[in-house]
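Contributing new records

If you add data, match the layout below exactly. Sequence lines come first and carry their own label; structure lines follow with theirs. Keep one chain per record. Anything else will be rejected by the validation script.
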Amino acid sequence: MLLRHAKSSWADAPLSDRDRPLTGRGREAAVTMGLFMTGLRPLPSLILCSPAMRARETCELSRRAFPSPVDVQVVEELYDFGDGSAIIGVVRAQEDVSPILVIGHNPSMEEAALKLVGAEQSHMRDRIANKYPTAALTVIDFDARSWKEIVLGSGQLISFTTPRDLGA
């Protein structure tokens, strides 16, 4: 599962990029996406989160909806705005824990999703390529025994959901 952080604030100009908090709308979207994820089965058993404040807030607000605690690891490499390779590398380095929720930034989230599901044409893939808005969630399934075995382009795109899809 790839979750882009919710909408963050630019109101406090002196804050560093890492320290920008969520806006009110962002907090609402994070809660909405957390509630949505409780309907997915199985729920994440591990959350890998960027160290940025907006990502950590998204993590905290969304996981409050989960019926039981989920381990969270803040991973420096997820503070990335590149081609998605960092996200894929972090996932491949995990032990056999499934499923994993990754919370990070764009364009890395969009690029990782597109690389993992490959080039098959679908409405969902087109939506990801067109725009990966804040708090958007991509769910991808792999036929692999471990994260180390995932192959680019081999993931099955299960869903792509935005807060707007859920009326938020």
